[in-house]
Amino acid sequence: MTITIYGIKNCDTMKKARAWLDDHGVAYDFHDYKTAGIAKDKLKQWSDEVGWETLLNRAGTTFKKLPDADKEGLNERKALALMAEQPSMIKRPVLDLGPKRIVGFKPDIYAKEVPAKARKKG
């Protein structure tokens, strides 16, 4: 099983999530939105699974700087287009565990959801 963490290299939350994975001996691939972008079909898949409202980072400066017209009448189609155009609007990190995605970083959720077999024995 390959675990992939999606996000932006210099994001503080990403640094915490990657440190947690490293500290727990979890092997993972890192997908940086800034350098690699994100496929629209991947965003749609995530949206179908967790909801576009969960994926959209409304607290970030990129979203806050949007013109009011872009923020009004948000629906899935509009939100996915915004996130595809500006991936920093995707809540970080998105941890792809294969059969499941975890959006955001909470150590207790990672401890519960990251399979023990993905962790090296201490």
TrEMBL record:
Top-level division of the source organism's lineage: Bacteria
Descriptive protein name: ArsC family reductase
Give the family, as the similarity comment puts it: Belongs to the ArsC family.
Q: Which organism is it from?
A: Bradyrhizobium pachyrhizi
* UniProt xrefs under CDD domains: ArsC_Yffb
